[in-house]
Amino acid sequence: MTQVAMPAQTVTGVLEAEDTEAEVRVAARAFAEALAESAEFQAFEQTADRLRQDETAQRAVGAYQTKQQSLQAMLMLNAVSARDQAELERLRQAFLSHPTVAAYLQAQENLTAMCQAAADVLSQRIELSFTAACGPGCC
Amino acid sequence: MNAANPPVAARPHVLPSETARVVTTLGAAFVTLTRDPHGQPFEVFLSVGKAGTDTFAAAEALGRLISLALRLDSPVSRDERLREIAAQLTHIGATRSSASQPSLPDALSGALFEFLHEPAPVAPASGFIDSPAQVEEPAGRPRPTLDLPTLPVKGNRRKKPMNTETVTIPPAVLAAAETLAAALTRVEPIAAYRRAQAQLEATPHARALLERLSAAQADLRVRQSRGTLTQSDLNNLRALQQEVRSDPVIMDYAVAQQAAIAYLPEVNQEISQLLGTDFAALAGPASC
User: Fold this and answer.
1) Chain-chain contact of B172 with A38 (C-beta, under 8 angstroms)
2) Could you count the other beta carbons within 10 Å of the beta carbon of residue A7?
3) Do residues B162 and B230 lie in contact, with contact meaning Cβ atoms separated by under 8 Å?
4) Sequence-distant (≥ 6) Cβ neighbours of residue B166 within 8 angstroms
5) Contacts of B5 in chain A (CB under 8 A)
6) Residue B138's pLDDT is what?
């Protein structure tokens, strides 16, 4: 095969682009490692494990989710009856009263807050919203 | 609700209908609208893809929910409800959507406006993206520890934007974020975007043009919601959109912005693969 020599300037440009992209990949992995090793992430993993093993709490969560799913269409239309609304609220309070659920939610909130703050740092430096570019579309 | 009326109107045995065939990113879709004996919209059926597929099921569900919204007892007329539904569905972008091949909801919205004999709203101008590209699911989940569903708690802060200025970021995370941000500013798609943005900032004519377009779009939405939109309004907006598309500074910015937006999900995927969960989804306040 005949090889076509690229101009030296082009070769340098390509190599530089490859270097910066590799640099981003390395930095992205280091960022993920730092997140994974944070106290917030570790606490979230631990509370999620405990919640998975708590069968009573799982049943309470399941009961709420089942009721909520059965009312999904009416909830979207804001047309749930007062009786159903009261039942949904009772089930919600029932699962929230479990300590493992409360601990899980608190850990989730802390982790989300940290991730949002870290994403804000990225967004401010690159002058473009990192999460809006990567997340699902707005409605 | 009137106690004499059932919550969901009963379906007459026979109803007249009209069907539109629309092209979408998911293939050809058929939208059918039935009308009650008074000529008011009554049901919408949406069919796309092969029976039994996820796409078919999602389209079926969308049609059923629209039908339910139309059939529920309400003081709002069914014509008005259909108009509101069509307006909700308009301009929902998808990864591969374009003017000639809109997303399924966008195409559905167009068909519903057609049934109402009304013009569909004009798309946002010049490729400024309202719906950012979807992130692909991370290919691997080496730490599958975060797959619990988010608990459906009222006021769950995951669904709200937070004041992150008050959150303390652990020093190691902050340092890693800064390093990543610095690397991102050097990589070509982001660097080109920032150059184009600086150029736009330095060009008063282009900025003024964008402000005029933004104001015209907002005005059009207001007129549309009031039902006072005229062909002349649409023509004026289209002329302004054409002017924006002809401006090289704005177009350079729009292209660079799209390239930057297309690049960032790759970075998110790199982070998410190692983390075992979608970082952007975790960090981004959900929109609705």
Assistant:
1) yes
2) 8
3) no
4) none
5) none
6) 36
B173 versus B56: which is more confidently predicted? B173
Does the distance separating the beta carbons of B178 and A121 come in below 8 Å?
A: yes
State the smallest CA–CA distance between residue B4 and chain A in angstroms. Answer: 16
pTM greater than 0.90 (yes/no): no
Query: How many other CB atoms sit within 10 Å of the CB of residue B54?
Result: 8
Q: Quick one: CA torsion of B49, B52, B54, B59, rounded to 10 degrees?
A: 60
Q: Which of A40, A56, A36 is nearest to A106 (CA)?
A: A40
CA-to-CA distance for A29 and B142, rounded, in angstroms? 13
Helix (H) / strand (E) element for A81: namely none
**How many residues appear in chain B?**
288
Q: What are the tens digits of pLDDT across the range B43-92?
A: 999 888 777 777 788 888 899 999 999 999 888 889 889 999 998 888 77
**pLDDT at residue B222, as a whole number:** 78
pLDDT digits (tens, 9 = 90+) for B221-242: 777 767 787 888 888 888 888 8
CB-based burial of residue A126 (10 Å sphere; 0-12 exposed, 13-18 middle, 19+ buried)? Answer: buried
Complex ipTM value = 0.78
* Contact present, B107 and B43 (Cβ < 8 Å): no
Contact criterion met (CB < 8 Å) for B174 and A121: yes
How far, CA to CA in Å, does B62 sit from each of B12, B48, B103, B181, B191? 21, 11, 14, 40, 41
Please list every residue in chain A whose beta carbon sits closer than 8 Å to the beta carbon of residue B149: 65
DSSP letters, chain B, are --TTS-SBPPPPS---EEEEEEEETTEEEEEEEEE-TTS-EEEEEEEES-TTSHHHHHHHHHHHHHHHHHHB--SS-HHHHHHHHHHHHTT---TT--SSS--HHHHHHHHHHHHTT-PPPPPPGGG--SSPPPPPPPS--SS----SPPP--TT-GGGS---GGGSPPPHHHHHHHHHHHHHHHHSHHHHHHHHHHHHHHT-HHHHHHHHHHHHHHHHHHHHHHHT---HHHHHHHHHHHHHHHT-HHHHHHHHHHHHHHHHHHHHHHHHHHHHTS-HHHHHSPP--
